[in-house]
Design a protein that fits this description.
Methane Monooxygenase Hydroxylase, Chain G, domain 1; mainly alpha
C-alpha cells in the first residue's frame, strides 16, 4: 500500500488532518518549484520573469500560512494543548496513520529546503542591488559614503577633516 492509498478509511479527524497536510504539501511543492525558477531568473537577470514569479509566490506563501494556521488549530482542538512543532510531531508519530506520518515527513523535509532556497535567492538579489548601486555611484560621479580612504596616520578623510576643524 502506498502512503497515499485511497483504499484506507480514515476517521473524521484523520481525514481533516490528511486534507490539511495534503494541501500544505501540494502548496510547498509549488513554492519549491517556483523558487528554483526564481533562482534561474535572478541569475539570468530576467526582471520581467522575476516580477511574474513574485506575483505567483505571494499568494502561495499566504496559502502556506493559512494551512499552518489550520494545522495548529486542528492540533489545539484535538488535544486541548497549545501548538508547538515538537508536540505536533510527537502527536503525528503517536496518533496518526502511516499515510499521515509519511506526508508530515515529506512536509518537514520540504519546508527547510524552501526556506534555504528563498534565503539564497534573497542574498543574490541583495548582492545584485549593491553592485548596481556601486555602478550608479561610479557612473554619476557620486562618492560612495561607505568608501573610506586612510591617511598615512590611519585616519579616514572624515576624521582628518574633523581633526582640522577642532584644531582651528
Amino acid at each position: 500500500m502506498t502512503p497515499f492509498s485511497p483504499n484506507r478509511v480514515f476517521t473524521p479527524d484523520e481525514q481533516i488532518l490528511l486534507d490539511i497536510l495534503l494541501e500544505e504539501h501540494h502548496c510547498l511543492e509549488q513554492v519549491t518549484e517556483l523558487l528554483k525558477t526564481e533562482h534561474d531568473a535572478i541569475v539570468s537577470h530576467d526582471t520581467e520573469q522575476m516580477g511574474h514569479l513574485l506575483d505567483n509566490k505571494l499568494p502561495l506563501l499566504s496559502q502556506l500560512d493559512q494551512y499552518d494556521k489550520q494545522r495548529q488549530q486542528f492540533f489545539q482542538e484535538s488535544t486541548g494543548l497549545p501548538y508547538h512543532d515538537g508536540d505536533f510531531s510527537r502527536y503525528i508519530k503517536e496518533q496518526s496513520s502511516v499515510q499521515i506520518r509519511s506526508l508530515w515527513n515529506l512536509i518537514t523535509h520540504l519546508l527547510p529546503e524552501c526556506k534555504t532556497q528563498n534565503e539564497i535567492n534573497g542574498r543574490i538579489i541583495s548582492m545584485q542591488q549593491k553592485n548596481t548601486e556601486q555602478i550608479l555611484h561610479i557612473l554619476t560621479g557620486q562618492s560612495n559614503n561607505n568608501a573610506q580612504t586612510y591617511s598615512h596616520l590611519g585616519q579616514t578623510s572624515e576624521q582628518k577633516r574633523n581633526a582640522l576643524y577642532t584644531s582651528v
